[in-house]
Structures are given as C-alpha cells and as structure tokens.
C-alpha cells in the first residue's frame, strides 16, 4: 500500500487560489483539473517546495479523498524521500495552507 507524507488540500481551496490568480471558476471536469494543477503548482513554487514535493491523490482513514502536497512516500518509484521532511522544508507551505502541525501520512487513493 503506497503512502504519502504531506498536507491535505481541498478542491475548493485550490479553486479559490486559481480565482485569486485571475482564472475563472471551473465549469467542466477538465477545467477543475486545470485549476487544481495551476493552483497547486503556484503554491508549491511560492513556498519553495516545487522541487521537493509532488501533488498526489490520497484518502484519509475514513476514506475521504483529498489532494495532498507530498514530501515523502514509502514507494521508491515515486522518487521522493522515504522519511518525513524536516521542518525547514515544510514550514512555508504549512503557513500558506494554514495547517497545524507537521505533514501526516496518508494512503494513496
């Protein structure tokens, strides 16, 4: 079972970020995916994690699916570290996403 260590990001947060970047709200599924990619890339570049994190789809222990900006994975094919990141790597993203605590581990969906 593949797991990722990162921060969960709701679709609505990503859509709002895209609107703040000047994009119209998504209408189609393709629009939604474009907005997710645009907004996630923007926040990862802004917080300096673009080169050390990846956007992945995960689910919580309750089975709820979210996007995750992941720093680590237990799957060596992901080309991510296998251990949780240091605080200096995730601090700016944590603040931008207004999260409490360090990144958590989630199962891939």
What are the SSEs and their pairings?
Layout (H helix, E strand, L loop, with lengths): L2 E7 L1 H10 L8 H18 L7 E6 L5 E9 L13 H11 L6 E5 L1
Antiparallel strand pairs: 1-3, 1-4, 2-3, 2-4
Helix pairs in contact: 1-2
Structure description:
The chain has helices at about 10-20, 30-45, 85-95, and strands spanning about 5-10, 55-60, 65-75, 105-109. With about 110 residues, it is α+β, with helices and mostly antiparallel strands. A four-stranded antiparallel beta barrel has the order 1-3-2-4. A hairpin with a 5-residue loop joins β2 and β3 (about 65-75). α1 (about 10-20) packs across α2 (about 30-45). The radius of gyration is 14 Å and the shape is globular. The mean pLDDT is about 95.
Core attributes:
about 110 residues; about 25% strand; 3 helices; 4 strands; about 35% helix; single chain; 4-stranded antiparallel beta barrel; alpha+beta
In short:
The protein is α+β, with helices and mostly antiparallel strands and 109 residues long. It has helices at 11-20, 29-46, 87-97, and strands at residues 3-9, 54-59, 65-73, 104-108.
Query: What's the helix count?
Result: 3
Please state roughly what percent of the residues sit in beta strands, choosing from under 5%, 5-15%, 15-25%, 25-35%, 35-45% or over 45%.
15-25%
How far the N terminus sits from the C terminus, by CA atoms, comes to: 10 Å
- SSE sequence, one letter per element: EHHEEHE
**Which sheet architecture does the biggest sheet show?**
4 strands, antiparallel, barrel
Counting helices, strands and paired strands, the structural category is alpha+beta
């Amino acid at each position: 079972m593949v797991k990722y260590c990162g921060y969960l990001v709701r679709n609505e947060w990503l859509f709002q970020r895209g609107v703040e970047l000047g994009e119209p709200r998504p209408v189609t599924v393709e629009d939604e995916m474009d907005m997710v990619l645009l907004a996630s890339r923007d926040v990862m570049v802004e917080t300096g994690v673009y080169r050390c994190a990846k956007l992945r789809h995960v689910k919580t222990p309750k089975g709820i699916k979210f996007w995750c900006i992941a720093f680590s994975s237990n799957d060596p094919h992901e080309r991510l570290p296998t251990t949780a990141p240091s605080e200096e790597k995730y601090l700016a993203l944590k603040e931008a996403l207004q999260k409490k605590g360090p990144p958590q581990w989630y199962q891939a969906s």
